[in-house]
Amino acid sequence: MHNGGVSFWWQQVGVPTPTDRLVGDARCDVVIVGGGLTGLWTAFSLHEADPTLDIRVVEAEFAGFGASGRNGGWLSSELPGSATAYAEVAGAEGVERMRTAVRDTVDEVIAVAAREGIEADIVRSGVLYVARSAAQAERLAGELDAAQVQRRIRVAGAVAGRYDPDCARVHPARLVSGVARIVRERGVRIHEDTRAVSVTPGAVVTEHGTVRAPVVLRCLEGFTAGLAGHRREWLPMNSAIIATEPLTAAQWDAIGWSGEELLGDEAHAYCYAQRTADGRIAIGGRGVPYRFGSRTDVEGRTQDRTVASLRSTLTSLFPSLGGIGIDHAWCGVLGVPRDWSASVAFDPATGLGHAGGYVGSGLTATHLAGRTLRDLVLGHDTDLTRLPWTNHRVRRWEPEPLRWAGVHALYRLYRAADHREDAGLDRTSRIARVANRVAGR
């Protein structure tokens, strides 16, 4: 089993060698910190709106090194945050506008990929959410009964389900490398191997020089805590994935997964999975949720106990795969604000802006964020700039060791709640409700 190496997705297409490292100081119109999908889609959208803009991206490793090239490949219509948090600032109508915008963005990403020749194994196959206990079924409020779930995918113990057609399977590394390609072709410079040290109005100081620009956009998502002055802004939450060896036709038949829909469950410590284009199951979950001091992983390597836990989840869903080989394991970090809700912001007075905090629903939201930042930077009042995540502000996370202790206690509570519900509780455990209040969700 290969553990790390950034991700299985990057190992499939080849881990890039960083190029165009910044040498000395530079000036431009817009400098973007972070070469993941948020930064790349922002650069794409800005250039599309105004091709005269001189745009540069600074990236510590290579474009797509972070969550953009490591995620579970769900181009999902899930809200990138708490409906309750957004409703507090925009009401129910604002939340519905946000849902519509995210849902429309699924099709927009697919359309851009098709138009620009990005081959990313994209299939608009939908997602099947399954409930495996009465409490999960209550939360899911799905339209599928146990028999209907089994006709789609034979998930052991499934009692109910819900199918959402507004979701697509994606190969993350192929998508982000494709977006990086088209951005470069338009003249945007991506300075890889160029780590930002600090961000201030008008300047980004890196290890190799300073880039000065009237507009500075921070698009670091789970790596935000590594930037000076931002340690407690967004918590870098870990998520890990394993990829099996390719399944045989008989194994696919045994589990009844004949289509290419994605698969998720309704547990508090939930899992997410896809059938890959080359016939594997890639399944992910939280694992060890957080490293002390907001540290991040090394080249995507995850803990052995996390691999064992994900294998256990896989075989719990599909007992017939008990002997399946695991070819790859990896992990990454996602940005989690204190209220678990993404935001996009720009201050015209300072020229500083940011986007992120997608809480694991970023593959779609990055494109929406990039278009929203475009409109904010250009000073346009649009439907996007009036979405409830625009200039949404939230308090910082607690200092250490409270942050580490709190996050680990939180996930112990979620797992305890799952255990009680699996044992027969017919409603959401009070333990989970307490955990949600502590989390600020």
Automatic annotation (TrEMBL):
Sequence ranges assigned to domain FAD dependent oxidoreductase in this UniProt record: 29-376
Gene Ontology CC: cytoplasm
Recorded superkingdom: Bacteria
Pfam families in the cross-refs: DAO (PF01266)
Signal sequence annotation: none
InterPro entries linked to this entry: FAD-dep_OxRdtase, FAD/NAD-bd_sf
Protein name stated in the entry: FAD-dependent oxidoreductase
Species name: Nocardioides alpinus
